[in-house]
Amino acid sequence: LKSLVVSLVLSAFAVIASAAADHDGAVAKVCPKLCTCDIVEGLKRADCSHENLINPYTDVPTGVEILDLSINKISAIEDDDFKDYTNLVKLFLSENSIQSISLNAFSTMRNLEILDLSHNRLQRLHENMFEYNEKLVDLNLSNNNFMTLYNQPLLISSSIMHLDLSDCKIPQLYERTFAGMPALRTLELTNNVMITLAKEPLGQLKNLRVLNLLDNQWKCDSESVRATVNWLRKRVSSLQIEQCFLSPFKSKAMFEKIELDPRQQVPRQEVSIDQVWGGSSTTEKYWNSLQDKTCSYNDAQRDPERKQTCEDFIECQKRFSELYHAFLAKVDKQGQANKFNHQLAVTLLTCGVFIGVLFGSFFTYSLLYLAKKCRKSDDERPPSATMRQLRREFRERNNFEHSRLNESPPPDQLSRRTTTNLTPQELSQIYRNHEHTRQFLVDLFSKRQPRYVRNN
């Protein structure tokens, strides 16, 4: 007995722990970064569109009720993609590249009411795909490619009431095409390639109320299509098809193109907009209409209700008059303010241009005057002063004053340095060599400047 009690207690603790873990896991769920989560019409929505998704997996919490996966790059939907999303009410998968959908892809969505599969690449759906979606009401399959239909039910569903098959390239309806959808009330078949229309495919839709057959390849002289249209007009409350089939007169052909005879064309002329739209505003129209109204009553009739109504009308007329004149005054004031602002802007712009031209002219004249004055002072400077200045600059730059290269050695130094008696020819040769060496050094350190002429 004790072991049984212990086992029961442990089992209870295990159940509580697992429930707590599940609760913690549910609390920890967050809205993924690639989606936007909010509440629309009281339903939890996750918008994951425009995200370039290649599969339906988004990691959205399973409690979502509206899931938008449109405008992505999903190519296929497998059985396990939505198995945990049992609370979905609306699912949008439009504008993807879906080519195949597994049979049980939507089987767990028992609450699904609206499904949008438009603008994909579907060519065929399994007829029992929506067998378990007993609440599915609205199915959009437009802009797919159902070119190949067979004489078998397109889908089997007892709940679908609105079906959109427009722009699906459907060439023909067969007898059993809609046999599996008895609750169908609205059927869209616009912009397909149907040429013939038989009664049998639509005769099984006892609840059909709205049928749209516009923009197909109908021919107005087709007697079979006309007969089917006349039969449908007695069964459905809203039928849309080309006007030639709704007219009681038979037409052999539809007008392809209508052109005006150029000889009969009237040249266009400018027309005053007041003639088309009217010159008075809505306020002026109601003002004139209200001012033309009058109200009177007779005290002798003792009709308090009529008297009160008349007094209310007079009061309303008075207040409207005050509002109307206040509105006119406000419009006039705004017009004057706008006119003043425009004039002020033009004046400021003109002054700015004038001041800019004035300062620009003065600045240009000053530059020209200074340049001319500098050129004139350079021309008037004497050549000797210029040479002296150049010589001074050369001397300061080369810094040769300390080397005494510009001076000839004194005669006494030459006599002291002479240790032997030299002939005049030898002395002359030494002097010339000395002069050549001195001149070579002067040219070398003065960066090949013109030869310096000494004043002997």
Automatic annotation (TrEMBL):
Cited PROSITE patterns: LRR
The UniProt record lists the keyword Plastid: no
UniProt region (Disordered), positions on chain: 396-418
SMART domains: LRR_SD22, LRR_TYP
Cleaved signal peptide residues: 1-19
Entry-linked InterPro entries: Leu-rich_rpt (IPR001611), Leu-rich_rpt_typical-subtyp (IPR003591), LRR_dom_sf (IPR032675), SLRP (IPR050333)
Bias (Basic and acidic residues) ranges: 396-405
UniProt entry keywords in alphabetical sequence: Leucine-rich repeat, Membrane, Repeat, Signal, Transmembrane, Transmembrane helix
Keyword Repeat among record annotations: yes
Transmembrane stretches, start-end: 344-371
This protein's name: Protein slit
Naturally occurring in which organism (per UniProt): Culex pipiens (House mosquito)
